[in-house]
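Why do we care about 3D structure at all? Because function follows from shape, and shape follows, mostly, from sequence. That is the central idea of this module. The next example makes it concrete: a single protein chain, its amino acid sequence, and then its structure expressed as tokens.
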Amino acid sequence: MKINLDTPVVESREQRLGTIIAWDGKASDLSRQSAYARAEGCGAGCGDKARRICELQGPFTQGSVCSEQMVECQAGHVRDAVLIQHSPIGCGAGQVIYNSIYRNGLAMRNLPVENLHMINTNLKEEDMIFGGEQKLEQSIRDAWERHRPKAIFIGTSCATGIIGDDVDSIAGQLTAELNIPVIPLHCEGFKSKHWSTGFDATQHGILRQIVDRRPQRQEDLVNVINLWGTDVFTPMLAELGLRVNYVVDLATVEDLAKMSSAAATVGFCYTLSSYLGAALEQEFDVPEIKAPQPYGFAGTDAWLRELARVTGREEQAESYIAREHARIAPRLAELRQLLKGKKGYVATGSAYAHGLIAVLRELGIEVNGSLVFHHDPVYDSQDTKQDSLAYLVDNYGDVPSFSVSNRQQYQFYGLLQRVQPDFILIRHNGLAPLASRLGIPAAPLGDEHHALGYQGMVNLGESILDILAHKKFHQNLAAHVKLPYKKEWLELQDPFALARRQPESGEEKRYA
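And the structure:
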């Protein structure tokens, strides 16, 4: 599947990969329907583009996030750049939380802590009539005068998509005038039904206008596509004699430019890294590591061995693998004993959830259910060694209650009632308070690298023990709160009941 960098607009995940946001069943069934590693019965839906899966269609959505917000947390976190949100001021509300995340991420990496550089053009009603191009041009000039950035990103919005501002022409004009990349990122919220297309939009703009077209290969440099977690890759890859180039979050423009010089590209989650990794290989011959994600013994072993093969460091990798297995074995045995009989539930992004479930099962924890916020039937490389769902099922067993839903609060109650977990792991914390009101503690994984690699199994096990120690608080909370749903809805066995049938007029109101 060829990635097209000739157009300024990225192809959405629905078009490219067949992404879905609602499904319910067993993990093994979803893997088979995806026909990724399991190609039997693929039929006409399998070409060189998206794989098609029947998707549940609910009558409404209660709340989620959009592609523009993912541009905020990617382009907005490039340290010596500025992101301009060409939008009404409401779209800038996320700047508050992303500024906090940015500052915390810098502190975790021992980088100078500062506020992010983000500007909103504050489109109003009159701009929706007469256009907002003058505001955009002025905002770009303001960004240059205030910050002297190495690059300026422009994130579009639903509003600018509707009025049709010529963002590309303005960006081209100011690129020539300011002599820095001014990069349009087409991320209108209605362009894609899942926010992960926003990752691709940012990476698409970087590939088109920042990445060095005439690189000098650095044989010990590895691109690590990540968010803002702690620096676990530097010591890990140093064992193989490799240096880390962290991208996109918390990178500099120079870091982004030299991605084409690297010896390989890796990521902690294929949801995030799929587009950029595949494009770097296609356009710049930087190999993307085709292996399971680095979670649990099996995944981390395979990931390290493939990276070592590509970079010619097999001997160092085998020595490191053996040492790490021996180092964590005693503590892992203790954790397995302490967590014996516990039941966990994972509610995170798609590929990341596959890795976390593997770690829970390495810890001896029962996992009967999981919620993923979307599902990509295939990733951009289309290499079956990156089929993280099939790898989970084949190596760690099936997940009987495996649901896809883009953070719908009204469904989460029923999903948890199905499996009655002792705790949940979650990254997007908006669902965690509902779990607390059911007496279920949550481990919010703000550091996405917490469970990665060999040490990650120990880290996660200890974090679970910490939250289980506070279970009495959550049980007390559950005893004194009332959920905001009617009795009829709470008694339903199927959280997807509204999506499985077409209700008669007014019927869905019974559960409001």
